[in-house]
Amino acid sequence: MDLQTLWFILIAVLFTGFFFLEGFDYGVGILLPFLSKDNSGRRVIINTIGPVWDGNEVWLLTAGGAIFAAFPHWYATLFSGFYVALFLILIALIVRGVAFEFRSKVENKNWKRMWDWAICFGSAVPALLWGVAIANLLHGVAINEKMIYVGTFGDLITPYSLAGGLTTFCLFTLHGALFLELKTDGTIRRRAADATRWLYPPLLVVMVGFVFLSSSQTTMFDQLNLGKVLAAGAAVIGLVAAGFLVFRSRYGYAFLATSVTIAGTVALAFTTLFPRVMPSTLGFDLTIYNASSSQYTLSVMTVIALTLVPIVLAYQAWTYWVFRKRLTTESHLEY
After folding, report:
1. Is residue 280 helix, strand or coil?
2. DSSP alpha helices (H): ranges in 140-250?
3. Using CA atoms in the order 183, 187, 190, 193, what is the torsion angle rounded to 10 degrees?
4. How do the domains of the chain map onto residue ranges?
5. Are 259 and 179 in contact, with CB atoms under 8 Å apart?
6. What is the pTM of this model?
7. pLDDT tens digits, one per residue of 95-123
8. Largest CB tally within 10 Å, which of 3, 95, 268, 305?
């Protein structure tokens, strides 16, 4: 395995971790205004992700930094071509972060309600736009021979990309509802459990529709290999198992199932792209070879990653262990 392939795999792993962890963050934020109408209930919902949400976002920063260092041409084309979409995600994340901090600053019902909806907005927009971005990567975008995106923002909004956005939106929302069922008790837990039952059918419909469109819009099912088969199998098994377990009230296992679905979906997307990183509809694909840094840069990065990543993983695992208990309205911590 060459270093370009190794770093492509590492970036895929980073995005898998990000969508798994930040996925339930987004789901919790989306559900916040709907699962409770009083401040104490919403405080419990926020507290479930209060100690960890900013740590979960670090996975995105690390993935972006890895792309910048390992595949600078991919980074330049992606962040310039998808500038508006990524800017909207950034604005939403800023609003969300500010809302977490400002919500408890004033003891006023309308003030708190405003920031609750800001958290919902700041969670819903990225949950939707990440799917739009992934769908565009799978479909291919207008990149010329100079590795420059020559399309417009409107070109990125298609029925296929919107189907991808709805898929991630519904998947993350269900993932968040299952997380709330595991992390809360009392009324919020019951409402979260009820929410999983009405969230699963729309997810099943949009995910089947997205797979159907992918068969004609992308190379996802062309030249099947072991990686694609395993990734697609994991995504399908996880999706089917999640529905079975939700309606059997086995929420812990259902959460594991949606986690497998997320991991399988991300793996399928990356195995479909490989060895490309950004397919071009004009015939000038960016690959892991023509978009990569020098061998020396990749070698130094590999040593650093192998040294520091285990430390980061251990610290984050410790954080989740410390904050593992269920929360109730008697929990007064303000995150």
Report:
1. strand
2. 159-183, 187-217, 226-246
3. -50
4. 3-322
5. no
6. 0.93
7. 999 999 898 888 888 999 999 999 999 99
8. 268
